[in-house]
C-alpha cells in the first residue's frame, strides 16, 4: 500500500521525459532570444509585446491584457514598453473608455519592425520546433501543450 506521506517520485521514464521537457524550456527561449537579438536587436519578450499589439484590433491593447498575453508582470512590461516608446515603436495613452487603464498602441514604426522581424522569427520557430517533428508529432505537441497549460492555468484563454 502507498504511504500517503511518501512523495510520488517520478518513474525512470517520467524522469527522462521531465528532463527532456526541462531542456526544451531552457534552450528554446534562449535560442529564440539569440535569433531576435542577432537579426533585429530586440529580445524575445520585446517581440512578443510588439507581435501581441500587431494582432490586436487597431493595434491597441490594455497594458494589463498585454502583460497577460506576453506572460510578464506589469512592472516588466512597463519597462519594456518604455524602451519601445523611446524607439518610437509604441506609445501609451489613457483608455478613453475607462481612464483607470492605460493602452499600449503599436505605432507605424513598430509595425514596420514587426513586419521586418517576423519572417526570421518564423524561420527560427520552424527550424527549432516544426522541422524536427512529423505532422502527427506536431499535433501531439499541440495537444500536450494545451493540457499542460490547462493544468497550470485553468483560466488561460490564449489557446482557445
UniProtKB/TrEMBL annotation:
Organism: Nonomuraea marmarensis
Top-level taxonomic group: Bacteria
The protein, known as: MarR family winged helix-turn-helix transcriptional regulator
InterPro entries found in the cross-reference section: HTH_MarR-typ, MarR/SlyA-like, WH-like_DNA-bd_sf, WH_DNA-bd_sf
Residue ranges of every copy of the HTH marR-type domain listed in the record: 12-150
SUPFAM superfamilies named in the record: Winged helix' DNA-binding domain (SSF46785)
